Amino acid sequence: MTDLQFENVSITYRSSSDRGDVVAVEDVSLDLPAGATLGIAGESGSGKSTLIMSALRLLPKSARLDGRVLLGGQDIRELSFGQIRAVRWAQASIVFQGALHSLNPVREVGQQIIEALEHHSKGTWTTPQKRRDRMFELLAEVNLEASKSSAYPHELSGGQKQRIMIAMALACEPDIIIADEPTTALDVIVQKQILSGLARLVAERGISLLMISHDLAVLSAVCAKLAIMRHGRLVEYGPSDEVCLSPQEDYTKQLAGAFPQIGDPESRLNPRTLKPAEVVRAEPFTMTDEVVLEAKDLSVSFDTRRGRERAVRGVDLQLRKAEILAVVGQSGSGKTTLARSLLGLQEVEAGSQLSFAGKALPKKAKELRAFRQKVQMILQDPAGSLNPKRSVYEAVVEGLKVQGIKDREYERVIGALEAAELTPAEDYLESIPQELSGGQRQRVVIAGALALDPQVLIADEPVASLDASVRGEILSLFLALKKNFGMSALIITHDLGLAWNIADTVAVMKRGEIVEYGEVDRVLSDPQHEYTQELLAAVPRLGSQSLVRNE
Amino acid sequence: MSANTPAEAAPGPSSNEPNPRGSETRGSIPVVDGAKLVRERRLNNAKKNWALFRSDVPALIGAVVLLFFIVIAIAAPLIAPASMLDVTKQLDVPRYAPPSLDHPLGTDDLGRELWVRILWGARVSILVGVAATVMSMIIGTIMGLAAGHFTGLFGGVIMRIVDFFIVLPSLLLAIVLSSVLERGVFTIVVAIGLTSWASTARIVRSQTLSVESRLYIERARILGAGHSHILFRHLLPAVMPLVLANTTLTVGGAIIAESTLSFLGLGDTSKESWGTILKNSMDVSAATSGYWWYVLTPGVAILLVVLAFTMVGRAFEAIINPALRSR
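C-alpha cells for the assembled complex are given below, as produced in the milestone run.
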C-alpha cells in the first residue's frame, strides 16, 4: 500500500506575460495514508487541480515545484522517467476533469481500457486474452454491461462515459485514485451512482481516494477528511463532518452555505451570499394570480435516426406575474426544449397551445420580434452567450438595436447594468467578455435581457457553470428582480437546491412530462411522485458521508 | 444616440470634452454618446494590431516591396515616358543588350529597355491581381455566408453552385472566358475573379457554420434579431479577418494567373504586362539563346510581388489567430 504526502508544497507558474510569475499553490501540507479518503474543495483558480497534478508529475514545464511530494515515501522528483511511468496508473491513477472529452472518439471504449493495460501490464495481463478478460471484469466492477465494450464514446451517456473513465483508472489495480471533479457535468441521479460506485470501491479494495470538487456536499458524501483551498492556500483541514457542519473559517461557511440544504427554512427564498442584491421597493412584489405565460398540452418532437422522438409531451404550465417557477429534471428530460418552445424558437406539434398575456403566440416574424421584447431568455453558458469581440456596451445595447429602440440608449444600458448589479456600470462598458469573471459575464447577459424591459425571464441553468460563491449572488439577483420589478421568471435547472432557494413553484419533469407541479414548500417537503422522491434522495447532503454509510 | 441636452444634440467628432467618465458623478447618469465609446475601443484595437504588424520583420519587408512596386506603377509615365516603349523610336538602341550601366536590365528583341517594360507591366499586373482578388473575395464572401447561414433548400442550392465552381478546372474556364469575351484588361479580371472565388466561399462557409453554432447567435435571436442583424453584426465581422488574410494570399495567385493568361497569348496584347514580357521572351526563345535577363527580369518581378503579398498576408493571419504567432 502506498501513502501520498504533500510536504510544504508550493507551485509557481513562470510566465513571460505581463502577469509575471503566478503562484498557484502556496505552502500546502496534506497527508493521504493508505486506504484513506481525502477531499479538496475550492473554487476555480484555487490551485486544487495544480496540486493533485503534481502528485504524478503531470505539471507543465513552466511550473516550479518547491517542497516535497512523497509517494510511498519516495520523492517523486527523484524518480527517473521510467519509474514515474511505472508509478502512473500502476500505483496511482487519475480520473480527469471533463472526462467526457478525454475519451478517443474514434475507438471503441473497450479498446481504450485495454490500451491502459498494454502500457502497464506488470506481468499480470500479458496476453491479449487475459487483457480482454480483465477489461470485462472492470466493466462489471463499474456496473456496465459487457456489450458496452464495443460502443464508441458518442453512443454512451455522460454517466456511462464517466464510468468508463473510472474503469480505466482502476485497470492496473492502483493504490491511489485521484478524481478531479468526477461528477461536475452530471445530474444528481447519475452523480449519486458514480459517487456510490467510487465509495464502494474504496471500501472494498482499500484504495485511497483523493477527490477534488467545488461542491462540499459531494466531497462530504464520500470523503472522511476535507481540505478547503483558496488562492493556493489551505484554509481549513479536518474530518469531513467537522469541516462541513461546524466550519471555523468564514470562507468555509460560505462554501458550505452555497448549496442549500433542502428543507432548511433559513435558506428558503434566501440564497446565501456575501453580496446580496438590493431590494429597493418598500413593498416588494409577490406572486400574483395574473397569468402571463401559459402552455396547454404542449408537445414537441424531433426527427432522429431512430425515428421521431417526443421531447416534450402534453405539458401544461402557467407562469404568473412576479412568480419564479423552477423546472427541474435530469439531463435529457426536455427542459431546454420546453423553454425554447415557450419563446417561439422551437416548432411545436399541432394541438399545442401557447399564449402570452392571454393572446396566442404570434407566428409572423415582425410580431414575434415584438413578443421577444416581452419575454427574454438567458442561456446556459455566459461565456458563450457573449460575442468575444464586442464590448459590454455593445452586448447590452444589441437588443435595443434589434428592437429599434433609439431614445435614451445610454441611460437604458446603464440602467440595465445597474439592475443586474454590475456597478459602477460605467467602468464595465468597454470591457470585453474575456476580461470579466464568469459571474460578471452572466450579469452582462442578464443586463442585455433587462435592457428590453421584459415581463418574463426564462433562464436555462443560469448558475450551473458558475462558482459556488457567485451562484448565491446571481440567485439573489433573480429574487431582487422579482421583488423590485415584478418580473416573472422560469428557471430551468437540475438543481433542486436552486428551487428551494428562490422559486415559488416547481415543476418536476421526467422524459418530457411534468410528473409533479406545485408550490415549492409542498413539493420539496412532501413529494408525492416517486421520481421527485428519487431526485430528492440523490441530492448529496453535507457531512455524514451519506453515500458511504448507506451502502 | 442620446440627445437629451442641447450640448449633446450636436455631436462633433472632435469634441474637446475631457474623458466622459471623469466628469460624471455617481447617482446621476451622465449624458454620453455610447457609440463614441465603441468607436474609441475599435480605434485602440486597430492601434494594437498595427503595433503587432510593425514588430513582424518579414511583413515589413513585404510591405516595403509592395509599396515600391505600387509607387513605380503609379509613377510609370513620369519615370519613363510612353515613347520609350515605341519600337520605332528604339532603332539606335542595340537589340538583346545584356544588363550594363547603359541598359540596367538589358534590352529585348526590339531594343526596348526591359526596366521600362517592367515599370509599365507592373500597372496591369498589379491592377489585375488586386481587382480580380477583390471580385473573387466579394463573390466568395457573399456565397459563403449565404451557404453557411441559410439552411434548407436555399443553402443547399448555393452549396451545389460552389461545388460546381470548385470542380471546374479554373485555368481552362479562364481561357474559355477570355477567348469568348472581348479582349481587354477587364476581361482578364472577370475571368480570374469568376474562377477563383469558390475556395474562398468554402473557407467562409466553414467559419460561418462554426460561428453560427455559438450561443451568442442564439442570444441575438432571443433578443429578436432577424437574418440581416445576424449576418451583418455577428457573422460578417467574424469572417472578415479571415477574408482579409485570404485576400493578400490570393492576390499572388491572381497575379500569377494574369501572367499565365498573358503568357498564353490571351491577354490584351496592346498593353504591357509581366506575362506579356514572358510570352515575348518565349517567342524569341530567349531562354535557350542565352538572353537570360529577358526571362529572369519579369519572372523575378512576379516572384517579388507574390512573395511580398504572402509575407504581409501571413502577418495578418498571425494577428487574427494568435496561436500561429510562435510557429
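The domain at 56-80+101-324 of chain B is CATH 1.10.3720.10 (MetI-like fold). Residues 1-29 of chain B have pLDDT under 50 and may be disordered. Further analysis is deferred to the final report.
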